[in-house]
Amino acid sequence: MLEVSLYMNERQQMGCLLVAEQIQRPDLQAPKWNISIYDREKLAPGYWFMSPYEHIDQKSPGKGWIGPHIYDDEGELIWSGAELFGHMSAMDFKVSSFRDTKVLSMIRPEVREAVLLDDAFRIVEDVPIDGLNMHDLNFIDDGKHALVITRGVVNASEELSRVTGLENGKCEANFHGILELDTATWEPVWNWTSYDHIGFDDTSFKYGPATDRCKHEWDFLHANAVDKCPDGDILLSARHTDTIYKISKETGSIVWRLGGRKNDFDASNVNFSRQHDVRCRSQNETHTGITLMDNAKGEDPKRPTSAYSRGLHISLNTVKMTADIISHYDHPDQGYTNRRGSYQLLPNNNVFMGYYKFPFVGRPLDPPDVLSHAFTRTDDSTMMNVYVSWNGATEVATWNLYRTDATGHAEATSLIASKTRTGFETTISYDGYAKFVLIEALDKNGNLLENGRSQILTNLPAQNMLTSEVVAEELWLQQIGDGVHIWLSE
């Protein structure tokens, strides 16, 4: 079952997203989603992990919605990390297994770093990797190792360059590589470069004369996904050759190619191009199962290979060298996503496309954010609206609103309202007036969550501060103040 297929259209990719505005956190401008749920009982548990961006080569802080975000199944914001990372792009944002724990992982392309966060959204690893490619940070072997793609700009030899049509000179091109890293030290344990194994004659990404392409780091390969198969060999996806390569871990040689100009398989029923997120799903002596996001169309003039973008689950017979589609999940609007994308197989066998979905418990260290505002009604009575959110907290079921004094003394604190959490920001309305308030976050069992008590907040004043409720509150505070002095002296 296709659980969610999240595609950004061209308008959204250009930065014209609708954003959800929060009253008490106007700094958070997360993308807003229109959601249709057709069978709630069949949804896999978990949250969406998404990282919208505007420019591939971002040089300076961008709009408020750029960066890592977490959402629930209703499309409601759970966490925005846009400010944490300065409104800079965060690529491949997801939950990963890192040695003995689960972490949030991402790539920061502008500084070429792999970044890991814990469940309190603290950075626990911040690892610069020379030449790190933005596409894939893939933890393998129970998180003990990680696979990444690296860029490698090389002036190819005249012999290799001759394939491009250059009669003289060398072609400057990006020959991507692969690193396998030991995550205890982040030192390489295996590396591979495409320079010795993939030539220019594989590419379908050609624009203008060869003399122009070869002057500016020709991206003839554009590797964008890397994975390890059960037999230890490596799968590499290259968007600009429309090919998936199986690479021998032992020798570095190409074992086979699926797709592209040098396809080793009889794949008359399998057609894909400009693909992303290739993963090795199963393997035995005769067959290999892989999944991928078939974009089917890029941003170059090459003709589409399918009527729309889709997810593919492919079975490869590696003895007879044939390929067949096991299942496909089509773009819901029968359109194209020209860049990026994913195919995630969820634990209940649902498929999530576009971004990622994982179970996760967020435990932020900062207390909830609260804004309280008093209003004067037309009949001169007073009421309050209290706006509360807690960036990153996943376990809040109920908000309790307390009236208190400036010190928060227990004897002066009383519960005046409760409200079930309703989305990222919950509004609690109270008929009456309290000058000082605080909020507590409770879990589904009614327990106070760690760090779930807000700071004491002074109400923003009403238009009329002489109503009976306001006057009564001031008298009460004076009485409480006298009482506090007595309590303290005791």
UniProtKB/TrEMBL annotation:
SUPFAM superfamilies according to UniProt: Quinoprotein alcohol dehydrogenase-like
Alphabetical list of Pfam families matching this protein: Arylsulfotran_2
Protein name per its UniProtKB record: ASST-domain-containing protein
